[in-house]
Design goal:
The protein is mostly helical. It is about 60% helix and about 0% strand. Helix 2 crosses helix 3. It starts with 13 loop residues before the first helix and ends with a helix. About 20% of the residues are buried.
């Protein structure tokens, strides 16, 4: 997937960290998104850097995949 054609996301590095989380999960996009409480289209937009999640959506992703918001937003473990 990489960065080719990727629009700049407001949250620097978020698309790459989310994509890494998705790949590491081993799930389909549809299942990853379902568990995170979003639809597949939104997941794709976030990974492509075309959109940023709401605070509530970010919280759902963090809870579903047991990662911190600091990690997804800023890359801090």
């Amino acid at each position: 997937m990489g960065n080719m054609g990727r629009k700049r996301c407001i949250i620097e590095g978020f698309p790459e960290r989310l994509e890494g989380l998705y790949i590491k999960s081993g799930l389909s996009q549809k299942e990853f998104a379902r568990r995170a409480g979003i639809n597949r289209k939104s997941l794709r937009e976030y990974i492509d850097g075309c959109g940023s999640p709401s605070i509530q959506t970010l919280a759902h992703i963090c809870a579903a995949y047991k990662v911190s918001a600091d990690y997804l937003l800023f890359g801090k473990e």
